[in-house]
Amino acid sequence: MSSRRFHRKSRSGCSHCKKRHIKCDEGRPNCANCQRAGVVCTYDQLKVPSSPAQSASASPAGSTASTLVYDHAPTFDMLDLTLMHHYTISTSLDLFAGQGSRKIWQEVIPREAQSSPLLMHGLLALASMQLASTRLNERQIYATRALAHQNAGTRLFRSMLEQVRTPDGHVIFIFSMILPILAFAFPHTCDDPPDIDGILDLFSLIRGCKTVWLMNPELIDASPVAQWVETTIVGHPIEMKPEVDHRFQALRASLTNPADIVACDQLIDFTRGELATSPDGVANLGRWPTMVSDAFWMRLQNHELDSLLVLSHYSVVLGAPSYRWWTTNWDSILLQAIDKALPEADKKATGWDYATMMKFANSCKAR
C-alpha cells in the first residue's frame, strides 16, 4: 500500500503547489514550498464582479500586451506599499545625478508603473535592493523580496519581447534600463561577493537587454524618457592617462585570439570615448558587456586566461563613477572574482597582481 500522505486540497494556493499537488501555506509573496524550491509564487487572479463599463474604464490605454502575457494578477502587500514609498522618497533620487534624472525616475516612470505590472515589479525590486544593501539586520527580507520582483518582472519582460508587435514597447524599453541597475545592485545585497561565474550571470542579464536596445528607434521615441536618454546616454571623450593607455596597448599586443582582440578594442574605444556619459559617469556603465561577441562571452564562461585578462581591464570603467549605492566597489568586486578564478601558475606567468590592478582601476575615478 502506498505510504503517500494526502492533504486537503487548497483552492487558493499558488500555481506551483497546485501543479505539484502539494499543500500550500499561501504565504505572500512566496509560500514556504516555493521558498525552499527557489521559485517565485504566482496566485490565480481573484474574480471581482464588475460591470462591463467599469472594466472598460479601468483598463488603461495601451495595456493590451500586459494583459496578454500576465495570466495572474500581481500580488502586492503592505511591504510592497512600504517599498513604493521608499522608492519615491529615496531610491528614485539616487539612481542618476541631475535634476532631469530625478524628475524622470521619481515622477514620470512611477506614473507609467501605475498601469504596468512590468514596471511596478522593476521599481519595487530597485527599492528592495537598496534597502537590502543598507539595512543589514533586515537584509534577508528585502533581498528575498527584491529577487521575487526581479524574477516576476523578467518573466513578463521576456514574454512581451516574444510578441511581434506590442503597444507597450516604451514600457519594455524602460524596464531594459532597470535590469542593468538591478544586476549591479545585486552583490550589495549579499554577505559574500559573487565569484566570476556569478558575475558573468549578472552581466548576462544586461546582455539580454541588447535585443531591446537594437530594436527600431520608434521604441525609444515613444518612451517618456526619450529626451532624458538622448541627453544622458550620448558619450563624449575623456582624457586617458598615459599609463592607462600603455597598459591597454600592452594587453592588446599580448592577445592572439580574434574574439579577445576585438573585445579589447571595443573596451579601449569605449573607455576613451564613452566612459563619461553622465554627470557621474554611470549611464553607460553596463554597455561594454552588451557590445562583445558571443564567441568572446563563451571564452569568458570557459575561464580562458586571455579573455579573463581583458575582462579585468573593464575594472577601469567600473572604478570611474562617483558613489552610487548600486555601483560602489564594483571594480574590487570584479577583480577579486578574477583573482580567485586565476590559477597561481597563470598569475605568475602573466604578472597578475590584484593590488596593481586596483591601482589601474582607480585611474579614471570621477573627481
UniProtKB/TrEMBL annotation:
PANTHER family reported for this sequence: STEROL UPTAKE CONTROL PROTEIN 2
Q: Which residues does the UniProt record annotate as the domain Zn(2)-C6 fungal-type?
A: 13-43
Do you know which SMART domains this protein is assigned to?
A: GAL4 (SM00066)
- Give a GO molecular function annotation for the protein: zinc ion binding
**Protein's UniProt keywords contain Heme:** no
Q: Which residues form the signal peptide?
A: none
The alphabetized UniProt keywords are: Nucleus
Matching entries from PROSITE patterns are given as: ZN2_CY6_FUNGAL_1, ZN2_CY6_FUNGAL_2
Which InterPro entries does this entry report, sorted A to Z?
Fun_TF (IPR021858), Sterol_Uptake_Regulator (IPR053157), Zn2-C6_fun-type_DNA-bd_sf (IPR036864), Zn2Cys6_DnaBD (IPR001138)
What is the protein named? Zn(2)-C6 fungal-type domain-containing protein
Q: Name the domain of life this protein comes from.
A: Eukaryota
Tell me any Pfam family this protein matches.
Answer: Zn_clus
